[in-house]
Amino acid sequence: MRPVPYLLAAALALGASPLWAQSWRGVIKNGPGELFDAEDTRLFSETSDKALNEAPDGQTLSWENPKTRHGGDVTVLRSFEWKGYGCKEVRINNRAQGRQAENNLNWCKVEGKWRLVSDAQLGKN
């Protein structure tokens, strides 16, 4: 799967470093995240944060902005460890103005912050 446009919003929303956010700038075209306003981003951020920090494996949390009718959900697929860090694989599905994108992402809590970890870093092909 190719990365999808809402990833920059996810990076910023989850407190990821500016370096991480910059690495996704080139792939945030033509997807739902490109259409998010500040309230969409806030709602997505809160939902993603709650999923990573509180949701058990298998739980789906949803969000929707009644003003824009944009929304989505975050599902915790599994929890795991990588290099001694607590990690979660999540499925993120967002929609905005007829655009929809879904992607599975691996997040690990490193030095108290959730960081995106690529499949290559995890040794997956």
Tally of separate helices: 4
Mean pLDDT: 81
Question: Distance between termini?
Answer: 12 Å
Q: Which structural class should the secondary elements be placed in?
A: alpha+beta
Rg (CA only): 14 Å
The largest beta-sheet arranges its strands as 1-2-3-4-5
Counting structural domains, the number is: 1
Order of helices and strands: HHHEEEEEH
Shape: elongated
The percent range for helix content is 25-40%
The tally of beta strands, per DSSP, is: 5
Quaternary organisation of the protein chains: single chain
Largest sheet entry: 5 strands, antiparallel
Hey, roughly how much beta strand do the residues contain? 35-45%
Uncertain residue segments: 1-6, 12-27
Question: What would your notes on this structure say?
Answer:
This protein is α+β, with helices and mostly antiparallel strands. It has one domain. The chain has four helices and five strands; from the N terminus they run H-H-H-E-E-E-E-E-H. It has helices spanning 7-13, 18-23, 38-54, 119-122, and strands at 60-64, 71-82, 85-96, 99-110, 113-117. The protein has a five-stranded antiparallel beta sheet. Helix 1 (7-13) packs across helix 3 (38-54). It is elongated. It starts with 6 loop residues before the first helix and ends with a helix. The relative contact order is 0.20. Mean pLDDT is 81; it is low at 1-6 and 12-27.
